[in-house]
From TrEMBL:
Example GO BP: methylation
GO function terms (MF aspect): arsenite methyltransferase activity; DNA-binding transcription factor activity
Every HTH arsR-type domain range: 4-98
Pfam families attached to this UniProt entry: HTH_5, Methyltransf_31
SMART domains listed in its UniProt record: HTH_ARSR (SM00418)
Keywords for the protein's UniProt record, in alphabetical order: Methyltransferase, S-adenosyl-L-methionine, Transferase
Protein name: Arsenite methyltransferase
EC nos: 2.1.1.137
SUPFAM superfamilies: S-adenosyl-L-methionine-dependent methyltransferases, Winged helix' DNA-binding domain
Class in the EC hierarchy, top level: transferase
TM annotation in the entry: none
Length: 350
């Protein structure tokens, strides 16, 4: 008797907690009206697909929703008629449409980012747009690069980034290093000096003009232990269990499916491998308009996740996490006071 009451109490707590979020409440309201594909819900409140997937998981685990696969689509619905009645009695209102078309889809976001960073690679614009009043050298100095770093590879320093993973990362001679979102090669070249002739650095970038500029820089600086590959970091052109260290500098926030990035990183790392990240995370949620602002997306703000959501995705991928540093002052220095920080992480593959 008491055990049954305790279980029911847990179920109720989970139920009401699941409905205690505006986004999840809107999802449920949409589904009270009609079933929806999972891909539809990214149009709610400007949330990215990774965040929406987490909300759907909470609602399923609370027993509110169910889902079934229809070919390549996943269709969500309210669990049953009894649950529909319960939700309506709780005052959850039906929503006519959660598909207003205002949310930029993942492919469009990726195209926007690719176009903008292509222009940076060609020298048509300076920086990503977050700090137009600072030179590339000033940005680099403010996030942890030495004067020697910037002078050694001035053609590769484009004033991008929110930290220096090659400085706080443990990179040893002979390591195989993978640079996610390698740009013009700045971090790749710094890593290449550390791994020496017995090691290797692989840079992956989705922007053709960046790859071309990085390869040209590799020739200019005489590196034969660095290779740049075209590709998405959500689907790495790298063999499984082949890398000792991964570095990434202010790039993962730009990617629509961040969960997949971390799963791919885990796949390519060898056992005990290390990943060093500097990235932007949010301390307060953005508005729908901010989420869809192309300039904010390209300047590493619009696509960023809340800090706890970001860390949860890393844990779900299987990594052990150590927070090395959190730079909140960068909000004022480079990001016009938006509620964010640059987080520096060390991840280890178990």
């Amino acid at each position: 008797m008491y055990k049954y009451t305790f279980i029911m109490g847990e179920d109720k707590a989970r139920f009401f907690k699941a409905l205690g979020d505006p986004t999840r409440l809107t999802i449920v309201g949409c589904l009270l009206k009609q079933d929806h594909c999972a891909c539809d819900f990214s149009k709610i409140s400007g949330k990215d697909q990774t965040t929406i997937s987490r909300h759907l998981k909470v609602l399923v685990e609370a027993g509110i929703l169910r889902y079934e696969k229809d070919g390549r689509y996943v269709i969500y619905s309210i669990r049953d008629d009894k649950m529909k009645q319960t939700l309506e009695k709780c005052g959850v209102e039906k929503v006519d449409s959660c598909c207003s078309g205002s949310e930029m889809d993942a492919d469009t976001k990726k195209d926007v980012v690719k176009k903008n960073y292509g222009r940076i690679a060609l020298g048509l614009v300076q920086g990503c747009g977050c700090c137009d009043d600072l030179t590339s050298e000033q940005v680099a100095a403010s996030i942890g690069y030495s004067q020697q770093d910037t002078e050694s590879f001035s053609e590769a320093n484009l004033g991008l980034g929110c930290g220096n993973p090659t400085a706080f990362g443990e990179i040893k001679e002979g390591d195989i290093v993978l640079d996610l979102g390698s740009g013009a090669g700045f971090d790749s070249f710094l890593a290449a000096r550390k791994v020496g002739n017995t090691g290797k650095v692989i840079g992956v970038d989705m922007t053709e003009d960046m790859i071309a500029r990085a390869r040209k820089n590799a020739e200019r600086y005489g590196f034969d232990n660095v290779e740049f590959r075209m590709g998405d970091i959500e689907d790495l052109p790298v063999e499984t269990d082949s890398v000792d260290v991964i570095i990434s500098n202010c790039v993962i926030n730009l990617v629509p499916d961040k969960s997949r990035v971390f799963r791919e990183a885990y796949r390519v790392l060898r056992g005990g491998g290390r990943m060093y990240i500097s990235d932007i995370v949010l301390l307060k949620e953005l508005t729908s308009e901010e989420r869809n602002d192309e300039e904010l997306i390209c300047s590493c703000v619009g696509g960023a996740l809340m800090k706890e959501d970001y860390l949860d995705l890393i844990k779900e991928a299987g990594f052990e996490i150590s927070i090395i540093d959190e730079d909140r002052d960068i909000s004022k220095r480079q990001y016009s006071g938006y509620p964010l920080e640059s987080i520096k992480l060390e991840l280890r593959k178990k």
